[in-house]
Task: inverse folding
């Protein structure tokens, strides 16, 4: 008789490993975290861990993929709100994305060191399309509403959404390099980060045919803690 798999229980056990990995990434960092730490925190066996993940890298990839799902869940209410006009949707879309990242700053900093390393170039290329697949359709809905409201003349919302997501991903890489440089030298370069955000915001507004200062791609209050000691906002 074929073995019956309890899909709900399977997903719950897998999620416990991901929860443990997130906690250990925040508290120990990727290099110091071992798979033994993960299954010990869960209270599971080595065999149970390897039933779900074949390596530490696979585990971290799964953490990142789950985060992409969480991002989409956080953005969906804005994208699907029928009462918001298009441009306001766009503003709130970027605002929600920035706040989501700000609330997970410690975890994202730990993952950033893995994400930006040369050894993980293949991982980045594998995960980028998955993130775009989750976020671009939501952004396309926002752009369609903005077009229908006469606030932008974007003729191809779906394709333009992909372009915008690629722009944001590239900005994330640039800011990530700056954050890691700050960690190594102890000299924050907030002005350079602000100029970078301003340049990308200008480019985005031109792509969408919006007047200058129509949107805030990254709120200064969200950006500042990434470039100040201990994440202080002042």
Result:
């Amino acid at each position: 008789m074929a073995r019956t798999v309890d899909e709900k229980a399977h997903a719950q056990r897998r999620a416990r490993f991901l929860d443990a990995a997130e906690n250990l990434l925040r508290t120990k960092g990727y290099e110091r975290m071992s798979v033994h730490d993960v299954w010990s925190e869960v209270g599971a066996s080595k065999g149970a861990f390897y039933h779900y993940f074949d390596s530490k890298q696979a585990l971290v990839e799964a953490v990142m993929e789950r985060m992409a799902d969480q991002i989409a869940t956080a953005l969906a209410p804005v994208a699907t709100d029928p009462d918001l006009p298009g441009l306001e949707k766009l503003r709130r879309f970027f605002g929600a994305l920035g706040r989501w990242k700000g609330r997970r700053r410690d975890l994202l900093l730990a993952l950033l060191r893995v994400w930006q390393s040369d050894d993980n170039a293949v991982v980045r290329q594998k995960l980028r399309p998955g993130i775009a697949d989750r976020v671009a359709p939501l952004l396309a809905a926002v752009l369609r509403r903005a077009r229908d409201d006469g606030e932008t003349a974007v003729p191809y919302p779906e394709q333009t959404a992909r372009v915008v997501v690629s722009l944001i991903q590239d900005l994330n890489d640039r800011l990530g390099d700056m954050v890691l440089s700050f960690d190594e030298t102890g000299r924050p370069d907030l002005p350079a980060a602000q100029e970078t955000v301003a340049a990308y915001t200008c480019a985005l507004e031109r792509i969408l045919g919006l007047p200058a200062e129509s949107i805030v791609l990254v709120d200064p209050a969200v950006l500042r803690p990434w470039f100040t000691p201990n994440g202080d906002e002042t």
